[in-house]
Amino acid sequence: MLLKQLLFAIFLLWGLQTLLTKGIKRPMRIITIVNQKGGTGKTTTAINLGVALANKGKRVLLIDFDPQASLTYSLGIKDANPTIADVMLNGKTRLTSTLTPTQEGPQVVPGSLTLADVELSLSTKIGRENILKNRLDGLEGFDFVFIDSPPSLSMLTVNALNASHEVLIPLQMEILSLQGLTQLLNTIVEVKEVLNKGLKITGIIPSMYDNRRNLSREILQTLKANTKERIFNTVIRECVKIAEAPSFAKSVLSYAPGSNGAVDFIDLAKEFLKGR
Question: What is the DSSP string of 185-241?
Fold first, then answer.
C-alpha cells in the first residue's frame, strides 16, 4: 500500500511538472509598433526585438504593413509574392500563404508598394477598420506577432491597431517626436474606445538616445515626468551598426553582436518578457 501511494505521488508530481512546462499555452500576442512620425525606429524595433525574442526560443512573426516595405528589404526578401497587400485586397489570398522564413529566426509577412493602393481602396469598403483583424483570424503557431505600421495615422494604422492586443511606441529623443506623442496617444485611445476595447499600450521605447547630448537626457526626463504610460528602462542608443545592418540583410544582433545596438535590443527583449 505504501509503495502504491509513493508511486502515485511521483506520478502526480511528474504530471504537474509536465503541465507547468509544456501543457500551459500562452495566448499569441499581436503587437503594433506605431509612431506617426517617420524615422523613429519602428522597423528597427520590429526586426531587432523580434530577432532577440526568437533567439530566446520564441516563435515570432513580423508583418510589414508599411507601403515603403522597409522591413521586407531590410531582411533581404526580394520579389515576394504574395504579400500582405494581396491578403488585404483579395479575401482568397490567405495570410499563411505569405509566410516567409528568414535566416534571422522570425518569419515574415512581406510588404510591398501596393499597400498604397490598399489605402485608397479601403476608403470605399464597409467595415474597412476590420479587414486586417479578419485576415489574422485563425492565425496560430506564434508567440508574438509584430506589425510594423506606416508613419502616419492612416486607415492602415487604424487597421493595425484594431487587429492588435498591444501597442509599442518607439520614440526618438527629439522635441518634435515628443510633441507628436499626445496626438498618437489620443488616436490609440479613440481606437480603444470605438473599435478595440482590449487594446493596451505595453510601453514607450526611448530610441536613438545619445547620452552625450543634453537634449536626449532632457527629453527622456520630460517624458518620464509627464507621461503616465510605461517607459522602458532600456534605451536604444544611437549606433551606426544599427543603420548599417539592413544593407547586409541582417539584424544588428547578427551583423554586430558586440555593438551597443545589439546589447540594447537583447536587454529590451529581457525587459519586454519580464513585463508579461
Answer: HHHHHHHHHHT-TT-EEEEEEEESB-TT-HHHHHHHHHHHHH--S-B-S---B--HH
Say if residue 63 is exposed, middle or buried (CB neighbours under 10 Å; 0-12, 13-18, 19+).
buried
**pTM (2 decimals)?**
0.89
The cell numbers describing 266, all together, are 537583447
Show Cβ contacts of residue 125 under 8 Å, excluding neighbours closer than 6 positions: 131
Cα separations in angstroms, 155 against 109, 162, 216: 19, 10, 32
Range from 13-17, 37-41, 97-101, 135-139 carrying the lowest mean pLDDT: 13-17
DSSP, collapsed to helix, strand or coil, labels residue 60 as strand
CATH fourth-level superfamily of 26-271 = P-loop containing nucleotide triphosphate hydrolases (3.40.50.300)
Q: Which amino acid appears at position 178 of this protein? A: L
Look up residue 29 and give its amino acid. Answer: R
192-221 pLDDT, tens digit per residue, is 999 999 999 999 999 999 988 999 999 999
> Which has the closest alpha carbon to 264: 177, 178, 201, 170?
170
Give, in order, the Cα–Cα distances in Å from 124 to each of 111, 121, 130: 22, 6, 13
Sign of the dihedral through C-alpha 229, 233, 236, 237: positive
Task: Output DSSP code: residue 141.
Answer: S
Give just the sign of the alpha carbon dihedral 80, 81, 82, 85. Answer: positive
Phi-psi domain of 91 (left: phi exceeds 0; alpha: psi -120 through 50; beta: other)? alpha
- Helix or strand (DSSP H, E) at 179: helix 175-194
Biggest distance spanned by C-alpha atoms of the chain: 75
**Grid cell in block for residue 139:** 492565425
